[in-house]
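Inverse folding, one chain.
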């Protein structure tokens, strides 16, 4: 249901984008309970379509894993999700989103890089030209995502675009 909710957000506005607050709420909606297990806050940010899809996937992965193994899996656990737009060193605007878990079970660090970590890195790095830092601190997982808000960043929408190159047709030499 989570991916379809993202598409619903996009179709409401002819696939032009969606507010980040709604993207976050869609991803954590299934895990919210009567108590505030998720605390959400940040400035009003309208995400372009490409950001909605990629960040939606990353947030879905964070929310699913948190519900299974992280802070919300215990009665005292809580997740704080916050964001703001900052100026990078180059003067370009970046969106910085922080996902911070606390009060859950001690975090166990895997010896190998799992599917979720790879998915988040791919969505943020390859699709948006950003960076995702995931800290498996014993007191709770912390993920900081920073992506450029410039429309020209992260133009790779497929891993095949990275590997493709023109190979001359041998018949063309005739």
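Residues assigned per position:
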């Amino acid at each position: 249901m989570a991916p379809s909710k993202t598409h619903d957000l996009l179709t409401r506005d002819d696939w032009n984008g969606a507010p980040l607050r709604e993207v976050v709420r869609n991803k954590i909606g299934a895990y919210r309970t009567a108590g505030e297990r998720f605390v959400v806050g940040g400035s009003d940010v309208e995400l372009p379509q490409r950001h909605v899809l990629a960040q939606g996937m990353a947030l879905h992965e964070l929310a699913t894993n948190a519900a299974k193994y992280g802070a919300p899996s215990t009665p005292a656990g809580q997740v704080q999700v916050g964001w703001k737009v900052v100026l990078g060193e180059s003067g370009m605007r970046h969106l910085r989103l922080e996902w911070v878990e606390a009060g859950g079970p001690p975090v166990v660090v895997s010896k190998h890089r799992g599917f979720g970590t790879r998915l988040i890195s791919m969505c943020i790095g390859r699709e948006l030209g950003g960076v995702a830092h995931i800290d498996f601190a014993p007191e709770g997982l912390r993920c900081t995502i920073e992506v450029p808000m410039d429309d020209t960043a992260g133009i790779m929408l497929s891993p095949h675009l990275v590997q493709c190159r023109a190979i001359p047709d041998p018949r063309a030499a005739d």
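Residues 17 and 49 are 4 Å apart (CA to CA). Confidence is low (pLDDT under 50) at residues 152-174.
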